[in-house]
């Protein structure tokens, strides 16, 4: 870990913290919620050792990245975040180099958008947990989630600024992070109001073998400084993304792609998603989708739970696009 280089990069009007290591074809690693660059620590070391230049930013609103006003949800659409990454690519990659991209959770959503908006910047993509879902012109995403799952679904509960932040603060940042990062359930989290009243601090949260108290301490140290608002704003901008992305209705993602998801990941067990993935819908929307991997018995944070397998999947897929460039 001490080999990883940390620096700040001026992108799109903000100061973005990145962690990077290695030389060779650039691999951009895009994290989700409530993660940070740190979630890619296993992949950074592996990729650098196998001839790649691994770059993992803290996305806007997260970690040591600074600049966007946290009280303005309109600064957290996919357009701003993709704009950050395009600027970052221009600075960390070789001239005119298309980069390799890996995404997870919200990072997967952003990666799909990067490939949709700027396919000229991406050579190939490995995405995890969240499949590409095309824009439905008939209803807004948050409205649809509320209609199907109700007001206690975690995305519904994340919508009102300040409310869930106060509840997380009362619960305790460390405990809130443990609940999210240790979550391993095929059903989506339900967050009843007054969350702390439903939780007893006397009940310890058992961490999985792949997540240490030291890992939690790192995340906690960053979220104690930033709070959760930056990450939550991605959820709060979902309906705004729907409005702004109308020009891409019906557009396909035309970048070579591989998709990996855990069998007990809540995203894989969302209503209708398995039929969409396995019965042709996904391939129709991403025509260059080359492979879909379902990891048996694996949960949401698969790149941390099974880093060796994920690293090999990434390397094998990317090699076909840059074998001549690898050291």
From TrEMBL:
Any keyword Protein transport?
no
The protein's UniProt keywords, in alphabetical order, are: Hydrolase
Residues forming the AB hydrolase-1 domain are: 27-311
InterPro entries cross-referenced by the UniProt entry:
AB_hydrolase_1, AB_hydrolase_fold, Epox_hydrolase-like
Gene Ontology MF annotations = epoxide hydrolase activity
This protein's name: soluble epoxide hydrolase
Q: Which reaction does it catalyse?
A: (24S)-24,25-epoxycucurbitadienol + H2O = (24R)-24,25-dihydroxycucurbitadienol; an epoxide + H2O = an ethanediol
Which family does this protein fall into? Belongs to the AB hydrolase superfamily. Epoxide hydrolase family.
Q: What is its EC number?
A: 3.3.2.10
Q: Which Gene3D superfamilies match?
A: alpha/beta hydrolase
Enzyme class at the top of the EC tree:
hydrolase
UniProt key word ATP-binding: no
The annotated pathway is: Secondary metabolite biosynthesis; terpenoid biosynthesis
